[in-house]
Amino acid sequence: MKQYNLTSGLSQTSIKRMFRCFRPQLKRFSSGETIFRYAQENRLLGLLTEGTAVLRMTDIDGAVSLLDTYEKGDLFGELFHLPLAGFEYLVETEKGCQVLFISYDHIIHPCGNVCEHHIQLINNLFFMAAQRSRNLSLHLNIVNQPTIRKKLMTYLTCLCSQTGENPVTLPMTLSALAEYLCVDRSAMTREIRLMNLEGMIRSSRREFYIFRKE
Amino acid sequence: MKQYNLTSGLSQTSIKRMFRCFRPQLKRFSSGETIFRYAQENRLLGLLTEGTAVLRMTDIDGAVSLLDTYEKGDLFGELFHLPLAGFEYLVETEKGCQVLFISYDHIIHPCGNVCEHHIQLINNLFFMAAQRSRNLSLHLNIVNQPTIRKKLMTYLTCLCSQTGENPVTLPMTLSALAEYLCVDRSAMTREIRLMNLEGMIRSSRREFYIFRKE
DNA sequence: ATATTTCTGTGATAAATGCAACAAAACGGG
DNA sequence: CCCGTTTTGTTGCATTTATCACAGAAATAT
């Protein structure tokens, strides 16, 4: 499964030339800081060049949900996610971050001399947005599953097919996985134990080997 | 909450001129037909100019889930949703449809004379993708809610704030709503009855009046 | 107008899940 | 190495929810 990023199909020199043209602003953030607040009027793109961050949404009652996680090379901004009225969307650092802010208008206006590369860049942005959309609907499909067991299996088999490994190691803690699956952590642990007993999987902590799907 | 569509901020004449340039293909589909199958290699955009359609995903076990619904003016295609390996994504008509297929490459390559409008078009496409992303994460947030009651209330209050009406009429059947909320239909009906008894809402069939949030 | 299908509402029962509270294991910083 | 913190594993219990089966209402087709 091909992955797109901002610089897919672009040479280092054309990237540098374009970026000079964009006049990006580099900012640093330490752990726990808020990097970015989504607002309808913003026209900014953030490129994470160092560290890890998360996008959280807070609903009217103050309930927080994790929407996305970002690492080096990932982008965020209204271009990828318009805010919904009445909700607050914040990008916050986990580890200390370095972020390049670029005005979205600089990107969509071809600036003459580097036009062909610029089009490639726009193409990349579209496909990154489409990837994000895919990830969201995968997440939705997982949460959609009627039981914890099916949620887990859907997640695990997708993870396996993406990484191509079978004893696969979770890219997050079990607590974080429970949050992602929208289930209670202890109920999830119980289900994992049962699945081990029934011989579906063999797992220890974050490492999972999948024997059969049901 | 501002809504974007393909022609936001564009005059009829510049739209016509651009569309001639794109050489789109117009096709008609009758009810139940498959309009479009997502594939990594496609570079096509579909613009629904008549009728209604749905995007469904089928997972490995054959379980189907509804991902999106489209009406006149809506767009679909890989640009908005890259397919996930191992899943099948189909756009199918509900009512008879008329669809304009446009090659994505025509759109991202500015074609000389109508450049400024073209940029506006690209801008619109980005924001439509961002809107789609917002809708997905709203859906996720709703499904995320721990109980049927909270799912319903989150959905209903969002619907109210979007339409600005309080006795609000569902844009779908109760069965479809249950599917959207990822809950059992009869369990949802029971919960609606209880919420009426407790005086939170007053509802009859698809019409809901919301008194208080808890 | 009547038949047929889809949609909506109801209730009993069983199963799945969340909650709360705690203990052991692993991790990380000083 | 030690100590505090985070992560993981465990259990009993109450609650929520799905399942199933059915009946009336509404919509649609004939």
Verbal overview:
Helix content of chain A is 39%, strand content 26%. Chain A starts with 11 loop residues before the first helix and ends with a strand. Chain A has 214 residues and is an alpha+beta fold. Chain A folds into 2 domains: 12-134, Jelly Rolls (Sandwich), CATH 2.60.120.10; 145-210, Winged helix-like DNA-binding domain superfamily/Winged helix DNA-binding domain (Arc Repressor Mutant, subunit A). Chain A contains 6 helices and 11 strands. Chain A has a 4-stranded antiparallel sheet. In chain A, strands 2-7-4-5 form a 4-stranded antiparallel sheet, with no helix packed on it. In chain A, strand 4 (53-58) and strand 5 (64-70) form a beta hairpin. The interface between A and B is large, with 51 and 50 residues. The structure holds a DNA duplex (30 and 30 nucleotides).
Defining traits:
globular; DNA-binding; Arc Repressor Mutant, subunit A; four-stranded antiparallel beta sheet; 6 helices; homodimer; alpha+beta; Jelly Rolls; 2 domains; 39% helix; 214 residues
Summarize the structure.
Chain A is an alpha+beta fold. Chain A contains 6 helices and 11 strands.
Any chance you could write out the topology, listing elements then pairs?
The structure is a homodimer of 214-residue chains.
Chain A: H1 12-22, E1 25-29, E2 34-37, E3 44-50, E4 53-58, E5 64-70, E6 75-77, E7 88-93, E8 97-103, H2 104-108, H3 115-144, H4 148-163, E9 168-169, H5 174-181, H6 185-197, E10 201-204, E11 207-210
Antiparallel strand pairs in A: 1-8, 2-7, 3-6, 3-8, 4-5, 4-7, 9-11, 10-11
The structure holds a DNA duplex (30 and 30 nucleotides).
